[in-house]
Structures are given as C-alpha cells and as structure tokens.
Amino acid sequence: MHTGSQGIPNELVKEGCPAKIPVDLLPDGSVAADLYQQEMGSMLKRESTFGWDPFPLKRPNNGLKLSLVLILTCYHCMKMWFTITTALLKMQLGLLLISPE
Q: The pTM is what?
C-alpha cells in the first residue's frame, strides 16, 4: 500500500536492473517504435532532435549519423541522452576540451 511518502520509485530502483540485456538483442529505433505502437496503440514520434538511434543497423562510413530517432518519453532519460549525445558530437567534431588533472 502506498504510504504517501515521496521517493518510493527511487528506493525500488536504487540497486539498478538485476538483468543486463546485451545491446545486440535490442531492436533499432524504428522497430522499437513499431512494437510500441502494436502494444500501446499509440504512435511515437519517429524522428527527434534529442539524439541518435542508439542501436543503428550499421555504422555510416562518415562516422557522423545525422538521422535522429525515437523521442524518449522520460524527462530524465531525455536529459541524460541529450548530455551523452552532445558529448559524443563534440568528440566527433574535435571540440571536446579535456582539462589536465
């Protein structure tokens, strides 16, 4: 029974996910969106400015994939994904400055 205190979801997941799924078993963005539509009956936005397809079918030869995919619904996931994508983009463009420790 819910006691009304805040933070219960955080307590439940603080140990992390007990099962780790290998990346090669996960579908690419368009397949995941199709499965979501079949399961939930609603559509997801297919292209997004929030990040790259995390599971591309094959890497482009130029090293920079410009097609954007599947919007992430969780605000915190989007924020984390944006941070990671921005860092990767900066690294690919050679703009990431690493300060000496």
A: 0.29
